[in-house]
């Protein structure tokens, strides 16, 4: 599943189409895709894992789910796009294996930009307040809660918890105040590291815990388990990541 930093990269790659008009649409989506024809793109935006195309009277939301992908100015010969947008002056964006839907309301009324870890409006104090209101929540679930950390996915979750030495089954309320601040700060810091490494095609080279077998600090096997209410894969060290409960 693409995480927030990858959606920001897509937004940047799509930027040349801003101000241009959709001339043709294709794809196997069930939405009324013909509405998009002759619509001028006012802006490309992102919120967490959502890619947003803002149009004069409505917007299009693309969510890549678990296996979604996209191609700009090229297509997959072996796959039918969920939605394909062709623009005046040439060029196209193709979306695959994703969810697309219209948003009728202004985006500023729909999205909490302060919760997006990649946004210039990100508010760490608000994130702390919201975390403290959920003392019984597991930290592995808290990091994946898009109302708290929009854009954080499983890779960022595992890497953040390893870096701040917190066991994924720790509860939010049991974390010392310093650790809770570290959790919030590292979620944003690592997201921007992810963004830079992804652009340089070297993201996996920097993973310390995600999908790894051995703890680089303790030189012992890492534990792998499907934890929390989401049952997403967690990779962690039972020696150096402290269980606060």
Automatic annotation (TrEMBL):
GO terms for biological process: base-excision repair. Residues 2-95 form the Formamidopyrimidine-DNA glycosylase catalytic domain. CDD domains: BaFpgNei_N_2. The keyword Lyase applies. It comes from the Bacteria. The keyword Lyase applies. Signal peptide: none annotated. Pfam families: Fapy_DNA_glyco, H2TH. GO terms for molecular function: damaged DNA binding; DNA-(apurinic or apyrimidinic site) endonuclease activity; lyase activity; oxidized purine nucleobase lesion DNA N-glycosylase activity; zinc ion binding. Keywords: DNA damage, DNA repair, DNA-binding, Endonuclease, Glycosidase, Hydrolase, Lyase, Multifunctional enzyme, Nuclease. It catalyses: Hydrolysis of DNA containing ring-opened 7-methylguanine residues, releasing 2,6-diamino-4-hydroxy-5-(N-methyl)formamidopyrimidine. Belongs to the FPG family. This is Endonuclease. It comes from Ramlibacter monticola.
């Amino acid at each position: 599943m693409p995480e927030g930093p990858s959606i920001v990269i897509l937004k940047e790659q799509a930027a040349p189409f801003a101000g241009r008009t959709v001339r043709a649409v294709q794809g196997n989506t069930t939405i009324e895709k013909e509405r998009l024809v002759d619509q001028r793109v006012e802006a490309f935006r992102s919120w967490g894992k959502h890619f947003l195309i803002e149009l004069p009277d409505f917007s299009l939301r693309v969510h890549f789910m678990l296996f979604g992908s996209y191609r700009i100015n090229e297509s997959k010969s072996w796959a039918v796009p969920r939605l394909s947008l062709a623009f005046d002056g040439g060029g196209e964006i193709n979306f695959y294996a994703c969810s697309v839907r219209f948003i009728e309301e202004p985006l500023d009324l729909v999205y909490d930009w302060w919760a997006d870890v990649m946004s210039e409006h990100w508010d760490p104090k608000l994130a702390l307040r919201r975390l403290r209101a959920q003392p019984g929540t597991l930290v592995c679930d808290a990091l994946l809660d898009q109302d708290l950390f929009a854009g954080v996915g499983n890779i960022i979750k595992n890497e953040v918890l390893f870096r701040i030495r917190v066991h994924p089954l720790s509860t939010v309320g049991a974390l010392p105040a310093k650790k809770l601040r570290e959790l919030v700060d590292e979620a944003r810091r690592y997201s921007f590291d992810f963004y830079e490494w992804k652009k340089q095609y070297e993201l996996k080279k920097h993973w310390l815990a995600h999908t790894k077998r051995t703890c680089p600090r303790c030189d012992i096997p890492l534990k792998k388990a499907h934890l929390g209410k989401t049952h997403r894969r967690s990779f962690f060290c039972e020696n150096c990541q402290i269980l606060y409960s």
